[in-house]
């Protein structure tokens, strides 16, 4: 067993877990992923710094690596950057989930005519998680076209992993304010704040305390890479501990600039205890997604 895989296994075996559930991984059509990688390679405006891709491999190899780590369930975070993409991405993601039973059926949306229809269709086809990317999509989550979509997803109880924080580069509609206004209208919405909402950690912890459906994923948070540019405030660690049932493991695999194990070790280094780690790395997602850990 290679050293990296062994390090990941030792982490979850020490915690007596059956493996990990990672709610923030990216699988998407190959030509789309290649464009995403090219954007990272060029350190595009939404990236802001050098960002080497640690797992630049063919899809079959990426699946092999993730499963080899002991990740029992994961997602295919797809997202559009313009109108006309989301329905096509949803079709691809539905096919990917059908052929990849350990992948939670993922879908997405964009504020455009017809969005409610194709989101409803994705729900009817069995989507278990949605992805919204306010930074890349550059749209207001409060757009009138999305209000019925948020309502539908709130009613269905389907989580929406949402990049709504202003890291690594702020967008016109990032920060806790825009999604906070959505939550005020749809308080039952299961909103999973990607990247712990960095760098506006405090504002998103506020939302999690205010709305019981708000969760936060750990994607890239607390790692050396992120601590250099958006350190988590030490004063907020007690709140992080208290919200331990609302934190979900996310990694951004394969688009991370360090080994997968580093995310896990960064969580361990917080010193919040083994029960907190068990909940974050498996138990919470297993509950939110209804038995995902057995996939």
Automatic annotation (TrEMBL):
Keyword Lyase part of the UniProt annotation: yes
Alphabetical UniProt keywords: Lyase
Alphabetical list of Gene3D superfamilies matching this protein: Metal-dependent hydrolases
One Pfam family named in its UniProt record: Amidohydro_2
Domain Amidohydrolase-related: 21-290
InterPro entries on file: ACMSD, Amidohydro-rel, Metal_Hydrolase
Protein name: Amidohydrolase
Source organism (scientific name): Streptomyces katsurahamanus
Phylogenetic lineage: Bacteria, Bacillati, Actinomycetota, Actinomycetes, Kitasatosporales
């Amino acid at each position: 067993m290679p050293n990296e895989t062994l390090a990941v296994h030792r982490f979850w075996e020490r915690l007596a877990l059956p493996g990990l559930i990672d709610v923030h991984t990216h699988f998407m059509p190959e030509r789309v992923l290649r464009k995403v990688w090219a954007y990272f390679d060029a350190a595009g405006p939404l990236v802001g710094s050098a960002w080497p891709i640690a797992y630049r491999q063919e899809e079959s190899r990426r699946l092999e690596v993730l499963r080899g780590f002991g990740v029992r369930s994961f997602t295919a975070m797809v997202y559009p950057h313009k109108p006309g993409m989301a329905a096509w991405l949803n079709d691809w993601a539905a096919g990917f989930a059908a052929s990849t039973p350990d992948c939670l059926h993922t879908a997405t949306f964009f504020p455009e005519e017809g969005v409610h229809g194709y989101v409803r269709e994705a729900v009817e086809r069995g989507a278990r998680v949605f992805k919204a990317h306010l930074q890349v999509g550059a749209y207001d989550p409060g757009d009138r076209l999305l209000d019925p979509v948020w309502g539908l997803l709130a009613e269905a109880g389907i989580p929406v992993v949402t990049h709504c924080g202003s890291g690594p580069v702020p967008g016109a509609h990032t920060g806790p304010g825009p999604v906070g206004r959505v939550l005020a209208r749809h308080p039952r919405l299961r909103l999973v704040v990607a990247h712990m909402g960095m760098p506006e950690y405090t504002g998103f912890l506020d939302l999690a305390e205010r709305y019981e459906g708000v969760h936060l994923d750990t994607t890239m948070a607390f790692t050396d890479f992120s601590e250099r540019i958006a350190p988590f405030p030490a004063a907020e660690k007690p709140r992080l501990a208290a919200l331990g049932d609302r934190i979900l493991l996310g990694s951004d695999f394969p688009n991370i600039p360090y080994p997968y194990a580093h995310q896990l070790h960064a969580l361990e280094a917080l010193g919040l205890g083994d029960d907190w780690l068990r909940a974050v790395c498996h138990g919470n997602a297993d509950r939110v997604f209804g038995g995902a850990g057995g996939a």
